[in-house]
Amino acid sequence: MRVFGGICLLMAASVLAGCSSTSRPDRSVTTGSIPRLSKPVESMTAPELASAADSIGKSYERNPKDRNVGMTYANVLMMTGRNAQALAVMQQVAIANPSDREVLAALGKAQAAAGQLEKALDTIGRAQTPDRPDWRLYSAEGAVLDQLGRSNEARSRYRMALDIKPNEPTILSNLGMSYVLGGDLRTAETYLKSASQQPGADSRVRQNLALVIGLQGRFQEAEQVARQELNPQQADANVAYLRSMMSQQNSWKQLASKDKASPDNGTN
Hints:
Radius of gyration: 18 Å
Number of strands: 0
Distance between the termini: 36 Å
Largest sheet: none
Order of helices and strands: HHHHHHHHHHHHH
């Protein structure tokens, strides 16, 4: 069962059809060599994810050089927390497709998920081309920079991504969560509300918004947001996570005190 898992930066780096990233992260892929997924990966329960990993894994075993199968399999593995295995899969796919931008982007995401952040930056940088910049790669680069504590650089990348893809909800969500990491909860909420109102915003964006609202002490409002578009089991898990966050008074009060102390709570 998937819950918030803490700060959720949407790594739009593996350009699949369908955290990955294509035009919309984690969508089901329908190419002929990949088993059809019954629903978007982000809305699957743990048993459904395990079943998807098993069926796609069999396709990968038959042809480990297939880029689409490999990227999809790595994405599902990361959704189940099997980051080391996902990285191994993407390394094999990258060997077979060394100049494929989408494969390099997916490899960068897998490296970041496995904690190899500097390598992920290098890989994503190699995937980017100045004459044809990809907003997904800028957003993915920003997510890695945020994990490295380089928030100013991260926000610069998110804004570069927004210049190419205005109002893209995954970028706005990442920008909002960047401000959460910096302790500016009010600015974070502004971006996350904007993200949640965009067409195509998925449940992860709304769960990030619920988390930020809850961290500010407005738990009833946060619970209402957390229960949107999720089945009861997933919603209960996310609400339980919210309650655990709220019970850690020191953690969220420190964020709140940083927020109040911030000299500029604007969105610039």
